[in-house]
Amino acid sequence: MSPLSSSLLNPRLSFSLKPLFLFSQSSFAPRKFQIPRQFVSAKRKTFSALASEQSSATDNGGRSGGGGRSGALSPSPVVEEVQRIDVNPPKGTRDFPPEDMRLRTWLFNHFREVSRLFGFEEVDYPVLESEALFIRKAGEEIRDQTKFSMTVAVFHFYVQLYCFEDRGNRRVALRPELTPSLARLVIQKGKSLSLPLKWFAIGQCWRYERMTRGRRREHYQWNMDILGLPEVTAEAELISSIVAFFKRIGITESDVGFKVSSRKVLQEVLRCYSVPENLFAKVCIIIDKIEKIPIDEIKRELNATGLSEEAIEELLQVLSIKSLTKLEEILGGAGEAVADLKELFSLAEKFGYSEWIQFDASVVRGLAYYTGIVFEGFDRKGKLRAICGGGRYDRLLSTFGGDDVPACGFGFGDAVIVELLKEKGLLPELNLEVDNIVCALDYDLQGVAAEVATKLREKGQSVDLVLEIKPLKWVFKRAARTNAQRLVLVGNTEWQQGMVGVKILSSGEQYEIKLDELE
Amino acid sequence: MSPLSSSLLNPRLSFSLKPLFLFSQSSFAPRKFQIPRQFVSAKRKTFSALASEQSSATDNGGRSGGGGRSGALSPSPVVEEVQRIDVNPPKGTRDFPPEDMRLRTWLFNHFREVSRLFGFEEVDYPVLESEALFIRKAGEEIRDQTKFSMTVAVFHFYVQLYCFEDRGNRRVALRPELTPSLARLVIQKGKSLSLPLKWFAIGQCWRYERMTRGRRREHYQWNMDILGLPEVTAEAELISSIVAFFKRIGITESDVGFKVSSRKVLQEVLRCYSVPENLFAKVCIIIDKIEKIPIDEIKRELNATGLSEEAIEELLQVLSIKSLTKLEEILGGAGEAVADLKELFSLAEKFGYSEWIQFDASVVRGLAYYTGIVFEGFDRKGKLRAICGGGRYDRLLSTFGGDDVPACGFGFGDAVIVELLKEKGLLPELNLEVDNIVCALDYDLQGVAAEVATKLREKGQSVDLVLEIKPLKWVFKRAARTNAQRLVLVGNTEWQQGMVGVKILSSGEQYEIKLDELE
């Protein structure tokens, strides 16, 4: 038996066999019958001989292929060196082999189920959008722009947009987030939408990150958004849904919390000092770095925007406040910032998650379009980046030329939460689990095994059908790997009486049963 | 009441309000209290006034914002014209608003459930891959190549690859199909994989199509693949799974069928005439056009490849065969083509779908890497493009420099099947359905309504919580739209006794119940 033919009889062998043949060559390797190599070679032309005749490919009378299943047996063909491709996914991206996919599915199912419990409807948008959708019309300067990425020009303060030019010279981008697409769709649908709308989406988002350790260029994000509600009840409902999610997966208020503030805090302080509104986003950019760079550097940058030293001092003082009472003392009780926040904390109590949230004036969040309450989920050990973040963005639609609708929402990534679950030992054990493994004991019964499998599947049972004839030892090993509950064996003796053998794999219980009675 | 403030009180109004304010301006519109405009204006600077002071933003003593919730009331701000963005998704792409998403979810759930019944494990790969993964190493010439798309160079004969250059000068492409990524991952995982492996994926695929009517640049594809099995049982199992899918969604064998052939038929004919193997793919390209262009044009193109007229005649004769018996008469019974196909038809009987499949020698399918049996699902009225297609590709891995593994699989798009369902009147009616709509009758009870919602959600019931105070008429209208089963009303009189009002919306039954007893 030649190596190639034996490899085709046994796939495990074939997997380790060094390939000599390009795919365009014959795959006529024998499968069930063996033709001695010498015999075949004598009857057939080799591929190299065929290749030399290529330019005058006319019928030369050699009907050599008619009866043969032999091509690849010829050992002389083109031994062209095929360069091995890079087997890794592109930099910053992930494959999802079954074990990783099970985790992703588990996570997404919880996202979906929570969204369903809260009465939200699922939506999605193209992963490829017009670049214009992510570029702010006004305000921020564009810096570090190249043909294929740009920073700051996007709604995210620091995001590198993953953008290109397509063939029609259109500027397109892989979406860095979902909210601008939502805004686009809401403007498009206009008055046909019933407000308030409650939408959720789970979508892949892309950034052209510098490839530092652990940073990826793509992640999935769960978004929930409520449009049409100016009331703080909307923010309260959104945080409630994230809490519900955490509870489902075993995360408690001693593991995570929400830091809550309002953009209006900053705005009220700036207004006290008559700082122009159009500096607001710029100030937010600087504030957002407060835990990352030294305080003197923050001061220097704020000063460079034109803020007085007095304003900077008060700003930093206000930002350090962690108590709502204290904030009220400083800002007074009549401002919206304090009123909104007080209402949110009061609702949190009714919703039953007041243990989860705390006021923290330093939270501004990284999206330029937030206008009111902002919040972020954080791990209480302080080891991880923000788990999720959200806020109110009542003015986003008008930046696209649409009519504004009061709106708020959050994004929840698939990366940090998995790190947290890992750290807490809360990652679920997820295995492939099939109800049945069905196996014929000899080749002629393969069709019967197929019949058995079809019957079971029609009853809603999953079946790993063994599609080749294998020793029982192999079958048991496979059953263990697929966590099969039951083994159904189709053997000659039993089948002659219309029976199949059954083994319950957990208990070892064994019996024979008529196929019709198999449930 | 100013138009803007009233709009914020009533989201329906705000939706139709022409926006005059950019998002970076204040969103301090009053919500619950009204401050007469004159009063506010007198106390506060307008935004335009603030803007003019931008360059010297120091504390001028005007703590005008401290107590106000007034900013946006000032009617004088920058009335900058915002150009409305294109509200449509990019050419050839789709949004999925709730109604479309429900259909997509319904379809994908069936894909997933069938895959589960067959014991397949879900996987996924990056939507963005190295361009090299889709370019054939040898054989086909590259034509019509531009910087951002190329034809024929890819495994699909005719696909325009949607490709770019990224910032690091790497050539990347939005995947046109999933199989090359699967091959890459299998090579990467190597011997750690247990064969046979049965994987499925549902992924978005991209092509740079010319935008003719109904053609899109993206679609979702359900793939199932079996690797490690040289036996035709693998193909039989795959077709069986598609049949199971059709049956689940109400499609019968009188609606659709499978045309089945084998690439080996063509190969055997070509070998009879000593046509070099490396012309095989080129001939397939031409054959694949057989129903699209005149037969004389087909002959001319085949002749141009160097095929003799006799070979062309026999080729076309063989390709017109629709009966396996006839094929056997011409090719003889010893070849693999006939043996494979006979085995498949015999298995189809055992699996119970022989009514669904028919032999058709003209089927070659559009992927360059197929080596054996190929099949496509078609609608029997002949109105639509192929519904799905698949085949054996035993040599794909070695084109990437990996070790070959016998393999077969199929791709099933999300577009044609929906057209078919539409035509047959089989599209499901899918609506948002919530278990409860919960509503407080006055503002002070909003928190109680939140409490009720949380309790119900913890019991697994979905709740559309009304987050604002609305007239009952509005609530009933909303309940009708969300198909709520039950209305839970929180009113003052009942709540004083710890009770809530319940109305079963289908029957009209009404009662009061203690919150603790609400199930």
Task: State the name of the first-level CATH class of the largest domain in chain A.
Answer: Alpha Beta
**Number of β-strand runs of chain A:** 16
- State the assembly state of the protein chains: homodimer
Helix % of chain A is 25-40%
Strand order of the largest sheet of chain A: 1-5-6-11-10-9-7-8
Low-confidence stretches of chain A: 1-79, 137-154
Mean pLDDT of chain A: 81
CATH superfamily of the largest domain in chain A: Bira Bifunctional Protein, Domain 2
- Rg from alpha-carbon coordinates of chain A: 32 Å
Q: What is the 3D form of chain A?
A: elongated
CATH architecture of the largest domain in chain A: 2-Layer Sandwich
Q: Approximately how much beta-strand content do the residues of chain A carry?
A: 15-25%
Largest sheet of chain A: 8 strands, mixed
Number of helices of chain A: 18
Instruction: Please state the structural category of chain A.
Output: alpha+beta
